[in-house]
Write a structure and sequence with these properties.
Elements: H1 26-42, H2 54-72, E1 76-78, E2 89-93, H3 101-113, E3 120-124, H4 126-130, H5 134-141, E4 144-145, H6 148-156, E5 160-163, H7 168-171, H8 188-196, E6 200-206, E7 216-217, H9 219-225, E8 231-232, E9 252-255, H10 272-296
Parallel strand pairs: 1-9, 2-5, 2-6, 3-4, 3-5
Antiparallel strand pairs: 6-9, 7-8
Helix pairs in contact: 2-3, 6-8
Length: 302
């Protein structure tokens, strides 16, 4: 069985100095907004076969997420050098937070802080696309159905694909089980990586568990609404809409060293024991890295 490796974290003193960027003036911002509106009105934008709309993502969706990334959660990205600048790769991360905000913050991290500004093409469950408006936005952000066929097509086309194997079991787990990984399913993501020869990048996310601490599950309400769970948190539904505001926890996102798959060959995807071992290696690597990140974080909110 391959050996699990903890995601290496460099000490603060070794982190390179990044000079501050100069924000554009209001005139430039207005001009850019008007140019965006012109393109949308004239239809001068493109979407790919999955519905991804990079123009809308860059000029509307990512700017909405950035204040949360930079000011609210104060996300620190670690190990970005482990994410290749080109070519297909499969990023596998832990899932938590009651609402999948972790996927969105990881998307911002890779786009804004990776030297190659890599776009993360997320794989989402069927329920994501059944939600009115949200499903359409997810498509435009680059998310597609969590199936091996779509994953393999994206990887073959050189995309960075993101998967959260815990699914609803991860984001819907009770708060007392925080930072304890749930089952990773049958290893479908490993099969996709083996068939395409794409490296697997373990990713550990700390901070999402505390944004909506789930202390209860209203199962009857969930069943009536057709949801996998209906969360009860210290602020929701007690405070009504105000309870939907996430708590400002401190986030750390660490990208681990790639796990190579190309040497196994595509036929290895049919070897259940190899798929199981690689799945277990990725899971154990992420779990150990979560413990390491928790020790590094000075506090839940600072």
């Amino acid at each position: 069985m391959p050996e699990a490796r903890v995601i290496p974290l460099r000490p603060d003193d070794d982190e390179p100095f990044v000079p501050p960027t100069v924000s554009p003036g209001w005139e430039d911002q207005v001009a850019a907004a008007l140019d965006f509106v012109r393109r949308r009105v004239k239809g001068e934008y493109e979407t790919d076969e999955f519905g991804f709309d990079p123009d809308l993502a860059d000029h509307v969706l990512l700017p909405i997420l950035r204040p949360f990334f930079e000011k609210w959660f104060r996300v620190e990205s670690l190990g970005l050098e482990n994410v290749p600048s080109t070519g297909g790769a499969l990023l596998v991360a832990n899932h938590s937070g009651t609402i999948p905000v972790d996927a969105l913050m990881t998307t911002v991290s890779l786009h804004d802080e990776h030297p190659a500004q890599r776009r993360l093409r997320l794989l989402g469950a069927d329920l994501v696309f059944d939600i009115p408006f949200a499903g359409s936005l997810a498509r435009k952000m680059g998310t597609t159905l969590a199936c091996n066929e779509d994953a393999e097509r994206l990887l073959t086309e050189g995309e960075l694909v993101g998967v959260f194997p815990e699914g609803f079991k991860g984001i819907g787990k009770p708060f007392h089980e925080r930072y304890t990984l749930q089952r990773f399913g049958r290893g479908g993501f490993v099969s996709a990586a083996l068939r395409t020869g794409a490296p697997i990048i373990p990713c550990a996310i700390v901070g999402a568990e505390e944004i909506y601490p789930m202390i209860g599950n209203a199962k009857t309400a969930a069943r009536l609404l057709g949801l996998p769970y209906f969360p009860i948190t210290p602020t929701f539904p007690l405070l009504g809409p105000l309870g939907l505001v996430p708590l400002p926890s401190k986030w750390l996102i660490a990208f681990g060293e790639p796990i190579e798959t190309a040497s196994y060959g595509p036929a290895a995807a049919e070897d259940p024991m190899l798929v199981f071992n690689l799945t277990d290696q990725v899971r154990e690597t992420i779990q150990q890295s979560l413990y390491q990140l928790l020790m590094r974080r000075k506090g839940v909110f600072g």
